[in-house]
């Protein structure tokens, strides 16, 4: 029985580690994207962390509800439009995270490029 608890504990930690790793990757990609995108600002590190969490939750919800990948290059034009919408809608949820519609379009392109370069899925 001790072995099961150890195995379960390891699985829980590895799942938690994977979630934290995805959020850190999302925050890094988001920070790089905001830096290079005109019309896209993030006020501080806490706003960046909250925005990364919100983006990840919205991406997960979209993937589960519509059974599609919401990454910019995940499903062609549909994935791109969903990525723009997620990036733009987040500005209404997270204070200090500001993006224009044009900025969201540019950000989705940059996000997709960076997401393709950095290993693991950022958004």
Please tell me about this protein's structure.
It is a single chain. With 123 residues, the chain is mainly alpha-helical. The chain has one domain. 75% of the residues lie in helices and 5% in strands. The protein is built from 4 helices and 2 strands; from the N terminus they run H-E-H-H-E-H. It has helices at 2-36, 45-66, 76-93, 101-117, and strands at 40-42, 97-99. A two-stranded antiparallel sheet has the order 1-2. Helix 1 (2-36) packs across helix 2 (45-66), helix 2 (45-66) crosses helix 3 and helix 3 packs across helix 4. It starts with a helix and ends in a 6-residue tail after the last helix.
Features:
5% strand; 2 strands; single chain; 123 residues; mainly alpha; two-stranded antiparallel ribbon; 4 helices; disordered N terminus
| Distance between the amino and carboxyl termini | 38 Å
Label the overall shape: globular
How many beta-strand elements?
A: 2
In percent, how helical is the residue content? over 70%
Major sheet: arrangement of strands? 1-2
Main sheet characteristics: 2 strands, antiparallel
- The residue ranges in which pLDDT falls below 50 over 5 or more consecutive positions are 1-7
Number of helices: 4
Backbone structural class = mainly alpha
* Tally of individual domains: 1
Oligomer: single chain
What series of H and E elements makes up the topology?
A: HEHHEH
Report the mean per-residue pLDDT as an integer.
Answer: 79
- Please state roughly what percent of the residues sit in beta strands, choosing from under 5%, 5-15%, 15-25%, 25-35%, 35-45% or over 45%: under 5%
Based on CA atoms alone, the radius of gyration comes out at 16 Å
């Amino acid at each position: 029985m001790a072995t099961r608890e150890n195995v379960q504990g390891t699985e829980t930690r590895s799942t938690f580690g994977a979630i934290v790793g995805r959020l850190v990757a999302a925050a890094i990609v988001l920070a790089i994207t905001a830096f290079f995108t005109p019309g896209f600002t993030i006020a501080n590190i806490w706003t960046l962390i909250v925005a990364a969490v919100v983006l990840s939750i919205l991406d997960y919800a979209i993937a589960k509800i519509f059974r599609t990948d919401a990454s910019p290059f995940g499903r062609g034009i549909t994935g791109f439009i969903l990525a723009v919408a997620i990036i733009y809608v987040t500005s209404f949820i997270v204070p200090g995270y500001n993006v224009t519609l044009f900025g969201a379009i540019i950000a989705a392109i940059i996000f997709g490029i960076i997401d393709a370069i950095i290993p693991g899925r950022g958004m």
